[in-house]
TrEMBL record:
This is Uncharacterized protein. It comes from Schinkia azotoformans LMG 9581. The chain crosses the membrane at residues 7-27, 65-86, 95-114, 120-140, 160-178, 198-220, 232-255, 261-280. Coiled coil: none annotated. The keyword Transmembrane applies. Keywords: Membrane, Transmembrane, Transmembrane helix. The lineage of its organism: Bacteria, Bacillati, Bacillota, Bacilli, Bacillales.
């Protein structure tokens, strides 16, 4: 990996800045506490009123805190482990590094776009940039022909691809169910609250879900790019769904109605983690050592 030194430096700053951002998100508590706010659309929204997320809604702010917990106690350690394994020459480590960097990129892209302006805005911008370039350098470091020879070609990897396609389709239909009805009847989705638009749904529908769907199709067709995108995306998805599970569980504890998501999201999360295990079992690390 020719850019190993550059990626290591970028990861160092990602770890330092994300640690600072997550600690502030978890432990900051200044502010008046919850209060009602009338939006520009004339609707009443309960505002969280505490810490750096004090201007976020009472429903969304705890989700940010839950994700901060996952990022700090799971994301950061995994990122450091992945970098260590990558520097030791492990193919599994490099794939894990790319997937984890994908998690940090998407996390702080959403924070940058959705969080109400706070003292960490520039930190979110910097983390988004650092993660993007570290992810790009890591992805471009793979030789696709070499990578393909290091995977066992069997039903297991096709099963992983099938799950990725299925999950992308289901999530896409779920978000369209949120977006389309209000567009047809001229109303505003409840999830908009006092924000400008549906940022999470927009990023998912425009980028993440199409990438997942295409990646799964490419691997099913035995295309080179599929052997890169599916493993990397699955590692990213496992970590992202862990954060989402934490959000759902946290909302449930706080008394927010989460419906079937309390069951569906953890099941998807566990399935994604199982798929990561399948991927690791189907990587021929010895072949990678011989040809790299």
């Amino acid at each position: 990996m020719k850019a190993k030194g550059t990626v290591s430096i970028l990861v160092f700053f990602i770890v330092v800045l994300s640690t600072a951002a997550t600690i502030a998100g978890i432990f900051s508590s200044e502010g008046p506490g919850p209060f009602e706010y009338e939006t520009i659309r004339g609707e009443t929204v309960m505002i969280y009123g505490k810490g750096i997320y004090q201007h976020m809604s009472l429903e969304v702010a705890p989700q940010g805190i839950a994700q901060d917990v996952v990022t700090l106690f799971i994301g950061v350690p995994i990122l450091l482990i992945a970098l260590y394994l990558t520097r030791r020459g492990w193919l599994r480590g490099r794939i894990l590094l790319a997937g984890t960097l994908g998690y940090f990129f998407v996390t702080y892209l959403l924070y940058m776009l959705m969080c109400m302006f706070n003292n960490f805005f520039l930190i979110y911008v910097i983390l988004t940039s650092l993660s993007f370039f570290a992810l790009s350098l890591t992805l471009f470091s793979f030789d696709l022909d070499m990578l393909r020879t290091c995977f066992n070609k069997g039903r297991a990897m096709k099963g992983v691809s099938g799950f990725l396609i299925f999950n992308a389709t289901i999530m896409g239909l779920l978000w369209l169910g949120v977006v389309v009805p209000p567009l047809l009847n001229g109303s505003i989705p409840l999830q908009v609250e006092h924000y400008t638009t549906l940022v999470v749904q927009a990023v998912d529908l425009a980028l993440l879900l199409p990438i997942a769907f295409v990646a799964g199709v490419l691997l099913l067709k035995d295309r080179l790019l599929g052997y890169l995108l599916v493993p990397v995306y699955m590692h990213f998805l496992a970590l992202l769904m862990t954060a989402l599970s934490a959000k759902i569980i946290g909302m449930s504890i706080l008394g927010t109605e989460v419906g079937p998501a309390i069951i569906v999201i953890p099941i998807i999360n566990l399935t994604a983690i199982f798929c990561v295990i399948v991927i690791w079992k189907n990587i021929n690390e010895r072949a990678w050592v011989k040809i790299r």
